[in-house]
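Batch manifest, entry 17 of 40.
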Amino acid sequence: MLFSTDVEKLSQAEAQEELAALAALLARANVAYHGQDDPIMTDAQFDALRRRNTQIEARFPELIHAQSPSLQVGAPAADGFSKAKHAVAMLSLSNAFDPADVEEFDTRIRRYLGLDAQQALAYTAEPKIDGLSLSLRYEDGRLVLAATRGDGSTGENVTANARTIGDIPHQLSNAPAVLEVRGEVYMSHQDFAALNQRQDAAGGKTFANPRNAAAGSLRQLDATITRARPLRFFAYAWGALSEPLAKTQMGAIARLEAFGFKVNPLTKLCDGPDELISHYNKIDEMRADLGYDIDGVVYKVDALDLQARLGFRSTTPRWAIAHKFAAELAWTRLEAIDIQVGRTGALSPVARLAPVTVGGVVVSNATLHNEDYIAGRDSKGAAIRDGKDIRVGDWVQVYRAGDVIPKIADVDLGKRPAGAAPFVFPAQCPQCGSDAIRDEGDAVRRCLGGMACPAQAVEKLKHFVSRGAFDIDGLGAKQVEQFHADGWIREPADIFELRARYGSGLQQLKNREGWGDKSATKLFDAIDAKRNIPLARLIFALGMRHVGQAASGLLALHYGSWEHLCKSVDQAQDRGGESWQDLIGVDGVGAVLAGSLVASMTQPAERAAIDRLVRHLDIETATQPDTQNSPVAGKTVVFTGTLERMTRAEAKARAERLGAKVAGSVSAKTDILIAGPGAGSKAKKAADLGVKTLDEDAWLALIEGL
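Output type: C-alpha cells
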C-alpha cells in the first residue's frame, strides 16, 4: 500500500483513515514476522511505514488510539516530541519554608477574601511529590492526550509513553465529557535502585535520583523504553473541565479516585494553619519510610468557589502554597571561587566544591550570592554566619535551598588551612577587563562593558533564544556559544541575517560537526518562522534588567503595539512628564522597573541594536481579553479608600478580568475613580481633573452580572 500524500497536506479525516490502514497493515506484518516467521515485507518497508505512522500522529496527537503501532512496538519519533498547548495553564506554586510563612499565607487569604481570624477556612494538605508534572486529557472518557508541563502553556506530547504507565487509566466511566487530570509521574526508591542496577549491568546510563530517572523515562522517544521503566502516577489536580467535579478540593480528589486514579492517602482536610503545620510535621517524620521522594507539603483552600475568587497571580495561584522541607546539609571542601558574568553584567561568585551528596543529589557547585556574602555580612553590613568569611580551602556546610539551589550555610574555622587568604572580589570584569562597579544601594557589582563584553553578549543571546523568549528550534545555548565564538552572531539581529549573509547558508554550516543539509535547512527555516513574534515575547527576549515575563506581559497589554511602547518610552526619559507617570502607573510596574526599561531602550548603542533587530520582525499587537460586553473595557480605573463589599485585591482582579487597566494613581488618563470611605488625596485630585467618581455600590451596579 502506498501513501503518496504529504503528511502536512492531510486533512484530519484523511489522517484518521490512513492511521487505521497503517495499524492493520503493521499488525499483520508483526504477526507474520514475530509469530509466523514469514515476513510479508522487508525491514526497510516496515520501517518506512512506521515512520509515516509516527509523523501523522505527531501532527494529529488527538488521533492516537489504543491500537496504534507506536504503542504495540515502540518506535522513535523522527524529530522528537510534538508540542501540546495546555487548555488551562500549568502554573507553579509559591513556597513557604517555615511556620511563619504558613501563617502569612493564611493571613493573605483571609485579607483577600475579607474574612476575620475567627471565621472557618478549611484547607487540604498533601505530600508534594518530587517527580515530573503531567496533564492527561480525557474526552468522552477516553485518554486522547498526555503532555508535560513545559513552560506552563505548552508542553511535550508524551501520549504514547503515558499509556505505558500502569497507574494511568486509558478509559474512564461516568467522567465529564472533557476532563484534564493533573498529577505527578514518579519512581519508587526500590524501583529506582533496581533500574540503576540493570542500567549499570548493561553498561547504560545510571541516574542521580528517582526524579531524574522518572523524567528521563517519560521523555524517551521510544515508548518501549518507557514501558520497561517502573513509572507510577499520583493524581492531585485538574485543568479543563466540561463540568465541575465537586464543590471542594477533597471532593474532587475523591472523584478522581473513583475514576480509577491513585491519589495520595496522606491528603488531609485541615482547619487553619495550626492543623496544616501539624500534618506537615507528621509527614516529615514519615518521609524516610514512604518509599518515594517528596520535597514538601502542598496546602490548598478547600472550597472551589473560594479558589475561583482568589484566582491567580502571573505565575502562581493565590489559593495554594508549597511548604518545603528543611534543606538537607553536608560538609565538603571549597576548592575554588569562580566569577561568572551574567547578561546584565552582574558578577556572580560560584563556589567550586569537592563533590558531595546532598538530599540524594551530587553537588559540586554552590552560589555565593555576592561579595558581601563571601565576606560574612549582609547588604547592610550586619554579620551573617557569625561574621565568618568564606575562603578557598575552607571546610563548608552545603544545603539545597528549597531542595534545589545549593548554597553554603556555614564554615568550620577549625579546619581552615593555615595559608588561606581572604577572597578579594575583582574590580574589573574577568571576561573583558572593563571596570566592574557597585552602585550605592546595590548588592551586586556589574561590568560596564555592555555588548562589548563577550560574556554579556553571549548570555543576552542565550536569553534571546530561550523558551520564554524567541524559542528557536535548533538554536539553543550550545549553538549560540558556537556561532558567537566563530563571529557569526554578535547581536540578536545577526540571527535573522544568517541565511542572507551566508548565501544559502548551507555550505558553511553543513560542513561543521553535527550539521548537515537537513539540519542546516531546518535551522534557517526555524529562524524564519520566528520573524512573527508576540509583543510580550519580544519585550522579554531583550533581556532588560528587572523586566521578566510577567512584567513583559503587563507592558504589552498596556501599550498594545511596539510603536506605541517605543514612543512612550522615548517620551518618558525626563522621568517627570505624562509618559513617565503613565508608565509607573501601570499596576505591577514600579519606578525601578520603569527606570531600567527607559535606560535600556534609550541608550544609543542598545537602541540601535534593537532597531536593527525589529527591522527583521513582524510584531503582533497585544490583544486585551474578550470583554465585548464590558462597560469598563479599555478604561483606566483607580481604587481608593476602604471597600466594604469586597477586598481591594479582589476588586482589582475583577476589574482586570473585565478588561480595565488598574492604575495606582490618578492622572488625566484616569477614566473612573472608585472611592470608598476614607478616600483622601486621590479623590481630591480626581475632582480637580474632572474624573468620574463612583462609590462601591455604583461600581458594583456598573459591572453587575459580568
